[in-house]
Write a structure and sequence with these properties.
Order of helices and strands: EHEHEEEHEHEHHE
Strand content: 15-25%
Low-confidence stretches: 7-13, 153-179
Structural class: alpha/beta
Helix content: 25-40%
CATH topology: Rossmann fold
Oligomer: single chain
Number of helices: 6
CATH class: Alpha Beta
CATH superfamily: Response regulator
Largest sheet: 6 strands, mixed
Number of strands: 8
Number of domains: 1
Length: 179
């Protein structure tokens, strides 16, 4: 299936949003990173909690995408730790999972997840959720102020979230939504 994606590439701006992708599946990691990198995002990948913690300590992240289950470790617990103990409190989290458990969406929101995306998913849906997560009003304000303090121009990237389009296998849940 050769799906033509709309052009969601980032316009010229002072920085490319940095995204940490955490998943134990190397094919999924490289696939997500390729889709996001092609659109102009700065992608960092981690296959385990140790690599994710190391990245969170050294990077100025704009978004974390994390699988709910990381083999022998909880992605939910990892993201709580990244946000609370490693300076990523304001960074939104998009959780992914192939689990069909009825409480998985509720658990991701309890773990401070802003979005949930069920695997498998279409690249366009991933891009739309990433763009929406990056434009949470409090995040835009906080990140712009931080970057200006670091000497970057006050201009933030102008990503406008496109309307959400889902394929038959996807289900996107928003915070507070009952599924």
């Amino acid at each position: 299936m050769n799906e033509q994606l709309p052009d969601w590439s980032l316009p010229a701006c002072s920085y490319a949003p940095a995204i940490l992708i955490v998943d134990h599946d190397p094919l999924l990691l490289t696939g997500m990173a390729a889709v996001l990198d092609k659109q102009g995002f700065e992608c960092h990948i981690a296959r385990d909690p140790e690599a994710a913690i190391k990245a969170a300590r050294s990077l100025d992240l704009d978004l974390i995408i994390c699988d709910v289950t990381l083999e022998k470790y909880s992605g939910l617990a990892l993201c709580r730790e990244l946000r609370e103990e490693h300076g990523q409190l304001e960074v939104p989290v998009l959780f992914t999972s192939s689990q069909q458990l009825p409480d998985v969406i509720h658990r991701t929101f309890d773990a401070t997840g802003a979005y949930y995306l069920r695997k498998p998913f279409e690249p366009g849906v991933l891009l739309e959720l990433v763009n929406q997560a990056l434009w949470m009003p409090h995040l835009v304000q906080t990140r712009t102020v931080t970057r200006v303090a670091q000497g970057a121009p006050a201009k933030a990237p102008s990503i406008i979230p496109a309307p959400l389009a889902m394929g038959p296998k996807e289900r996107v849940a928003m915070p507070g939504e009952k599924v």
